[in-house]
Design brief:
Layout: H1 4-16, E1 39-42, H2 48-59, E2 63-68, H3 71-81, E3 84-87, H4 96-107, E4 112-115, H5 131-159, E5 163-168, H6 180-199, E6 204-211, H7 240-251, E7 262-265
Parallel strand pairs: 1-2, 1-4, 2-3, 4-5, 5-6, 6-7
Bound molecules: NADP nicotinamide-adenine-dinucleotide phosphate.
NADP nicotinamide-adenine-dinucleotide phosphate binds at residues 43-50, 68-70, 73, 88-91, 116-120, 140, 168, 170, 211, 213-214, 216-219.
InterPro entries: NAD(P)-bd_dom_sf (IPR036291), SDR_fam (IPR002347)
GO molecular function: 3-oxoacyl-[acyl-carrier-protein] reductase (NADPH) activity
Pfam family, one: adh_short_C2
Length: 275
Amino acid sequence: MHTKGTIKRIISFLLHGERPPIYAQISYLEPNNRLKGKKIIVTGANRGLGYSMAKKFTEEGADVLITGRNEESLKKSAEQIGCSYIVLDVTHIKFIKPFFEKAYQMLGDITCLVCNAGISLHEKDFFQITEDSFDCQIDTNLKANVFIAQEFMRLKLSQEKAGNILFISSEVGELADNRPYGWTKGALNSFVKGIASNFIEKGIRINAISPGVTCSNMTGLNPNEDLFVQTNKTKRAYLPEEVAEIATFMLSDCSNCLSGQIIVCNNGKTINTRF
Ligand SMILES: NC(=O)c1ccc[n+]([C@@H]2O[C@H](COP(=O)([O-])OP(=O)(O)OC[C@H]3O[C@@H](n4cnc5c(N)ncnc54)[C@H](OP(=O)(O)O)[C@@H]3O)[C@@H](O)[C@H]2O)c1
């Protein structure tokens, strides 16, 4: 039974296109030490998805180390989360090896790596792509991830120990795109699927999460404001905390049988062409 107010809202919606508010109801698993004993690096975690994942991993009992370029915000975030940090621009490939040496000293035996740092330059069309915008996105979203993963795998293989790598890709990597951001994520997915089976016998798992449009600086969507997103199946933006829940499962031993998988978090939007 509709109340008067609701009927008025529906009429107003029909007449003026005014849209009802969008609410998000999300559920969390109570922290239960699901990541106890894990030592996890999360790249690009001073805000956004990286921050939410690092916070959740810490709540689940892991020792976490976050990276980013801006020391001030990184330090503040690390204090809020209760984890350690190292300043690292992931595109500076020559600093990756010393970074792992320092991280090893601070964290001990690193078990998991989450390659999250990424940028999107949102070029409006093909002719807005410049050499700089192309290089910058390829360097950050693809090249850096390949060499960070390579160094981590070297470390794990030399120690003859198991490891777990999780990349944060994107739903756009599932589709053909006309911009470098999508090309980097498509290539990243190919990398994950192509390399995972080479290392599973050594105990190294490699997977990716591909979120749909999620609240963050990258999308300019603020979780405290309107969550409406026309292009998401749910018509609302996803929240970084939702991605963090899935990431926790992917780093936990409960997902030990998963490797080479792209976990697409968009309610099936990119599975087929007919909605
Ligand atoms: N939000 C979405 O809708 C969405 C959807 C699908 C996938 N993703 C992916 O999720 C990941 C996180 O994005 P977000 O939405 O949380 O964006 P965000 O709020 O802009 O955060 C990006 C993070 O990456 C870091 N970063 C960027 N360039 C870096 C570099 N060269 N070296 C080190 N850190 C760097 C940033 O830190 P500094 O700038 O301080 O260095 C920041 O911590 C990205 O890989 C993105 O492609 C996001």
